[in-house]
Amino acid sequence: MKKSILVSLLLVCTIFAFAGGKKESDSEKIVMRVGTIENVNNLGAKAVDRFAAIMKEKSGGVFIVEPYHASQLGDTSKQLSQVKSGTIEAFRGSISSLGRLQGSLAIAEFIYLFENVEQAEKVALGPTMSKLNDDLSKEHGIRYVTASWSRLPRHILTKDPVKSLADLKGVKIRVPDAKLYIESFKAMGATPTPVAFGEAYLAIKQGIVDGAENHVESLYNMKWHEVAKNLTLTYHSYDVTGFTVNQKWWDSVPAKYKKLFLDTDKEVNEWFVSEIGKLQDEYINKMKAEGVTVWEVDTAPFRNSVIPAAAIAIENEGFWEKGLFDKIVKELK
Question: Rounded to two decimals, what is the model's pTM?
Answer without folding.
Answer: 0.85
